Request: fold
Amino acid sequence: MNNGIGTQLSNKGSTLDFPGGNKVNTQASAVVQNERTTRDDSFVEIPVKLAKEEIVGLSRIDPLRSTVHIVAEWSMIIGAIVLCQRFWHPLLYLVVVAFIGARQHALMILMHDGVHRRLYSNRTFNDWVAEVVLAWPNLISARAYRINHFGHHRYLNTPEDPDWARRQGDDAWVFPKKVWDLGQILLRDISGLNAFRLLMLARRLVSKDTGMTRSFIMVRYAFYAVLAILIGGAGLMKPVVLYWVIPMFTWLIFIFRIRSIAEHSAIDGRDVAYAQTRTVYPTILERIFLAPKNVNYHLEHHFFPSVPFYRLPALHALLMSKPGFAKSAHLTQSYLGVLKECLGPRGSRAESVDSVLPAFAMEGAASSAAE
Reply:
């Protein structure tokens, strides 16, 4: 896997040269649909250049730091549960649901770093921590997610991007929207009414064991079986539902919606590479309840996926000092600001997910249709 250190690419005719001698045609129609990719770089040229020393320095893995963050998140979950049980009140419970949902999100962001192999230098240890400690408790498989996510990185906002393809034909991802329409969607998310839909989506795209070894599948489901026996035997079913299942299928879904909108929707058409995603400057409350672990630096992550989450602020500061980045990047103040950018009368700038496709991808799709 390319760790992203060599993702500053050069345009040469109709192909892009990748480290290691691999070439990818820039027309999306030339990419094999549903190709299983093991690379997390992009076939869009990165417009901002960093020195090799800068990238290597920012890409260093700090295993102690990763461990501290993992332990801290689980500790905060346990602490919130103890606090709510000790000082039970319905309003406190609602706050705890949001807080734990955000911590579940934090665990998944840490898993995401594990998917990019940014938690630990030992790949075997990195992958198993990402699975057992971070992914499986959230009912997903990090290995299966890696297949989906690397396809997203490699073919961002093209028909070969599995995340892009999944949203086609779904009016929920067409922007701008009226306040009432967007509000209805978010209300369904936070109330749990969209939980079944998320389960089906997770089952189809994230939690599949496609390509996994039989031993891996056996270990994974043995994990769930043992966990169910322990929970049932200890009489902890009610607390698990109250403090894990309900946050997962209410606040966590709400977070995913807003985060997904922020990352790839309602973005002004600018330079091809900059028009694919945005960076958000969250408020303190948004960092706690919505966007932990520097997940708001999404443009930086797509440009340089080798950089661990704890160095994304430093990467952002470095990029802001480079010519063109501050002027071209889509930078939004707060996630509330993101939602405001998504509002407007339908038809005023009727934007579907098609509108953020790179120009060369649109040309490729058009030429393919013509043939």
About this structure: The chain is about 55% helix and 5% strand. The longest strand covers residues 278-281. Confidence is low (pLDDT under 50) at residues 1-35, 347-371.
